[in-house]
Amino acid sequence: MSGCHGAAARPGPPPGAGRRLAPAALLEPPARANTSPQAGAAALTVALAGQPNVGKSTIFNRLTGLHQHVGNWPGKTIEQRWGVVQQGRRAMRLVDLPGTYSLAAGSPESQAAREFILHERPDVVVMVADVTALARNLYLLAELLTLPAPVVLALTMLDVAAGQGLRVDSAALETALGLPVVPVAAAHGEGLAALLTAVERVAADPAAYRPARPPVPRQHGPVLATLDGLLNGSVPAAYPRDWVALKLLEGDVQVRDDVRLWVPEGRWHDLDAVLAAHEDALLDVAGERYAWIDRVVGAAVTPTRAATSGLTERLDAVAVHPVLGPLALLAVLGVVFALTYAVAAPVQAWLEASVVDALGGRLTDALAGAPAWLSGLLVDGVLGGAGTVLTFLPVLVIFFAALGVLEDSGYLARVAYVMDRFVQAMGLHGKSVLPLVLGLGCNVPAVMGARILETPSSRLLTILLAPLVPCAARFAVLAFLAPAFFGQYAALVSVGLVALNLAVLAVLGVLLHRLLFKGERAALVMELPLYHRPSARTIGLFVWTNTREFVHKAGTTIMLVSVLIWALSSFPGDGLEESVLGQFGRAIEPLGAAAGLDWRLLVALLASFLAKENAVAALGVLYGAGDEAGLLTELIQQQVPLASALSFLAVEMLFIPCAATLTVMRRETGAWRWPLVGAGLLAGIALLVGVLVYQGAGLLLALGG
Amino acid sequence: MTEPALQSLTQLPAGGRGVVRRLDTPADTLTRLLALGFSRGVEAVVLENPRRGALIALVRQTRIAIDRAVAATILVEAVGHGSAG
């Protein structure tokens, strides 16, 4: 896979090639604009709610198909998806609320969900419930029922429940809950029409909607009445007062902060006094909810035999085993790598040879009469950038397909569980291991893959650490230069350098965790969902939306950087030596002296910013070997001292992330701040390590010889 | 108060069962435990309890991985032969 972004310095396809992958229709205004072109004035807004892993996205994907819009929830880093569903003559705007186990404050997902319902007042909320764990699912329903929006319940996984020996009577459930209950099998599209009909019926006659509501604990009834009275006249219209009172009693931090701002100072003291006397009410409220839920479930679910979950039990016997679990993970990662090398690498090579190089050749011919700078700009700068974007695609597709399968099947949660104890000290979530390890192929998807992490701090930490995973492009540099410099010791040196990278990663992880996040880490409390067959549709969409986003959002920046680097290394004059980049390298030569790096080695490092393997090509130019590998080997052996060579390779392995990685780091963190901090840190660490390696090696060589 | 002997979830062996009697968990983590199916009076089955690292419990048909420190705040009354381990 040496060509991770190997086309960088070579010609590429026409500039529009990347953009064609992102149809204009998919780039529309965010969900809050209720004025989508397809949605008429009478369009219904329907929110899709549910706990994670219940098949909610399968339903959303089935209903909206490719007519999906992806954005971010206001003020949050969670993805917001919405789409339009045509139901007869009427259009429905379907908003996919983030999957959340409850509506309690504490996670950005639950806050986004409840804020949407409170402030946007959807006409109907469709809650998706997994019947294999109906009681837990109905906890979210119990919370939704306290909000001002009618709910329709969609039941999923009925086939799985039947296999487990559970019979679910949806009519009985409907009676017990007093709201429409529709069984669906989203993978086959069954029940979706009935679901939409139920939504329409509820929206058409809201007055007829009279659901059962979970009772509040008897001993807390008077307290709620007191709170309600104290809140009278202070609560903004968007918030139902009884909901605010209940959340206060539950100790909801967010609502507490809000109420403090709403009520006069004196009133807050009264409220606070009441709350202080009922601090542990949450346990009672939750207990009462589950008592109600257990009655409802008892009426609707009958075990036909002793319940089992055979497949999950059998797979977990290996997957979460303290010894077998990590081994199984190793095997899974091995398969993903094998796939990447077997499928992505040949496709990349083909793209480079048959598409990028071929188009570049034609363009060079076509521009034969034009000034050299124009041909250079278009072929090396613009098409070079587009070629980089293009050759990333095979790796991205395989990476996201693998991630999608692992997540959709339920295995990802096991990875998190198994790896938790190993990465705890770094403040990482066990799930971080997956993008980081798969980052051995390429750091770009590793950074994008950090999305699977729920907490912003683990996400940021994973993104900052990802560039320290040696990627295929750096392995390619190592594979060429280590033998050239160190002959029979090449393998030993390579292994040492990779180990150095991983050691720096671990140390930096621990330090950043302590300094940046003060060692805070959300304790692991995580559902391990039942395993199930991944849906091709869900994975296809996952791959499509992520790849499209890379091309659309990062593609432009990569092209610009490509043009910029081309200009810096081509002007003024006509060689790298005389260019701005070359002169800059000479200017900072004193900086490299302690690390044994002369200006040529520094320029090669800078040139590898666009793509790591450019270092080799740059050395070829700087040492006057052109692209003759044999000659370059000979020349650098003569001219680069061993200690400098070792220092150069160590710095190259640790140096600032490549342009594409930095671009996606900026995309994922929303600003340039973190990518710049990361690049600065790595530049500093690389230089420091370079100095240590150079001085250390010099000392050893002096002693030895 | 004549409470039966309580033990923490971490003290149950794999396969051990217990009825949750007390949740002395800090508020933010407690909220998550409740949403995942825990409540006073519910039966929890310990599925995995390695010497180090998180354990796995089955509560209301849900498998939940729980940090050891958190599991230590969940106090149960052992059921059947899932006696103290």
What's this, in brief?
Chain A has 705 residues and is of the alpha/beta class. Chain A contains 29 helices and ten strands.
Largest interface: A-B, 38 and 34 residues
Q: Can you count the helices of chain A? A: 29
Task: Give the helices and strands of chain B as they follow along the chain.
Answer: EEHEEEHE
Counting helices, strands and paired strands, the structural category of chain A is alpha/beta
Strand order of the main beta sheet of chain A, please? 2-3-4-1-5-6-8
> C-alpha Rg of chain B, in Å?
12 Å
Beta content of chain A comes to 5-15%
Q: Give the mean pLDDT of chain A.
A: 84
Largest sheet of chain B: 6 strands, antiparallel
Number of strands of chain A: 10
Q: How far apart are the first and last residues' alpha carbons of chain B, in Å?
A: 25 Å
Mean pLDDT score of chain B, rounded? Answer: 90
**What would you call the structural class of chain B?**
alpha+beta
- Count of helical regions of chain B: 2
Spatial order of the strands forming the largest sheet of chain B: 1-6-2-3-4-5
Which regions of chain A have little confidence, pLDDT < 50, spanning 5+ residues? Answer: 1-41
- Through-space gap between termini of chain A: 39 Å
The portion of residues forming beta strands of chain B comes to 35-45%
Helix coverage percent of chain A:
55-70%
Low-confidence stretches of chain B: none
| Assembly classification | heterodimer
